[in-house]
Structures are given as structure tokens and as C-alpha cells.
Amino acid sequence: MSEETVFDQILSGGISADIVYEDEHCVAFRDINPQAPVHILIIPRRKITGLQAVEPADTGLLGQLMAAACAVAGQEGIRESGFRCVINAGAQGGQEVPYLHVHLLGGRQLGWPPG
Ligand code: AMP
Fold first, then answer.
1. Three-class SS of residue 14?
2. DSSP string covering 56-75, please?
3. Whose CA is nearest to atom 20 of ligand 1?
4. DSSP three-state, residue 8
5. Taking CB atoms and a 6 Å cutoff, what residues make up the pocket around ligand 1?
6. What digits encode the pLDDT tens for the residues 85-94?
7. Which stretch of DSSP H or E encloses residue 81?
8. Mean pLDDT score of the chain, rounded to an integer?
9. Which secondary-structure segment (H or E) carries 55?
């Protein structure tokens, strides 16, 4: 059994979040420490601890996450101007919360490479 994370608690309603999008597969909410004018996290309702834990049966869910990120980009008005989706995986990837999530970032010119 994986540890309960802050994202489990957001899903269960145990802690509040600024939820901006929900569908059958995914929930999206604003990052509490935004790194851009738009910084939203998209998580699957079905828990996966990270991209490093994905299995072949999860490929459809990964597609749902990316499609949800694109839908949220549209809601936020950054679909045309451009945006970035980031998945941090594991310690060296900078993942702090062990619950798969896509960062949707936009609303300003983003630099490359990331830190
Ligand atoms: P990562 O480093 O990829 O695991 O990203 C975790 C993200 O979760 C960080 O950007 C945090 O700011 C964000 N975060 C942590 N706690 C919360 C929370 N309660 N509500 C919204 N975002 C959070």
C-alpha cells in the first residue's frame, strides 16, 4: 500500500483545493505554489505513484491526463499562446508528491532548459 499523499486527501475532500476541472478520469486543481500565471496540476482519479510506476494497462489513462491538460489549457485561455506539460518522476526528476501528476504551466514565456 502506498503512502497517503496530499493529492489523495484532495481527492477524498479531506483538504481543500481550487479545483478547476473534473471528469471521469481526472481532477485538476491550482498548484499551491505557482511557478507561472497558470500552474495547474492534473491527477488521475485512479492512483499511480508516478510515471516510473506506469504499466502497459495505464496507457489509456496517460492519454486522458494529457487530453485533460489540453482542455484545461483551453479553459485558462493559453491553448493558443502556448503552454507546457511537465511530469516530474522520481527523486532526480524533482518529484515531491508520490502521486502521478501533470503540471500545466503557462501564461508567460517559459524558458528552456528547465532547471
Ligand atoms: P512535484 O515536485 O512534481 O511532486 O510537484 C508537487 C507539486 O504539488 C508542487 O508544485 C507543489 O507546490 C504542489 N502542492 C503541494 N501541496 C499542494 C496542495 N495542497 N495544493 C495544491 N498544490 C500542492
1. coil
2. GGGHHHHHHHHHHHHHHHHH
3. 32
4. helix
5. 6, 17, 29, 31-33, 41, 88, 94-97
6. 999 999 999 9
7. none
8. 97
9. none
With a pLDDT cut of 70, the percent of the chain lying above it is 99
Buried/exposed code over 10-49 (b: 16+ C-beta within 10 A; e: otherwise): bbeeeeebeebbeeebbbbbbbeeeebebbbbbbbeebbb
With cut-offs at 50, 70 and 90, classify the pLDDT of residue 71: very high
d(CA 21, CA 27): 6
Find residue 26's DSSP bridge partners.
44
Provide the residue type at 7 as one letter: F
- What 3 state SS string does 21-51 have? EECCCEEEEECCCCCCCEEEEEEECCCCCCH
Closest residue to atom 17 of ligand 1, CA basis? 32
pTM, whole model, 2 decimals?
0.98
**What's the gap in Å between 57 CA and the centre of ligand 1?**
26
Q: What share of the chain is helix, strand, coil (3-state, %, to 5)?
A: 25, 20, 50
